[in-house]
Design goal:
By secondary structure, this protein is mainly beta. It is built from no helices and eleven strands. Strand 7 (about 65-70) and strand 8 form a beta hairpin. The protein is elongated and about 50 Å long. The N and C termini lie far apart (about 40 Å).
Amino acid sequence: QVQLLESGGGLVQAGGSLRLSCAASGNIHSIDDMGWHRQVPGKQRELVAEITSGGTTTYADSVKGRFTISRDNVKNTVYLQMNSLKSEDTAVYYCNALIRHNTLYPPVNYWGQGTQVTVSS
């Protein structure tokens, strides 16, 4: 019913920048919160940043001042601008979106397929 398509991952040197994008498509009435999470092997997935439909943002302490989350509500897309990247930012990054298919039922949480970000020191 809904697909989240991520792009923008890759290999970058420490101190560099990357911009991730995640576009939602399919049966969408509206989207509540959207966010980015990351996961490294052997560890739990952790929240990186999230943004409400009204634009209120939340960041993990480890990325504050370096990462910026934004969204385009017309394009149903969420972005993550990552600056001053560190080796510890290396992970698979997943986007998620709370999507309403109609006005009758609560939103459903969907996940993207993940995109690898590797920061070389």
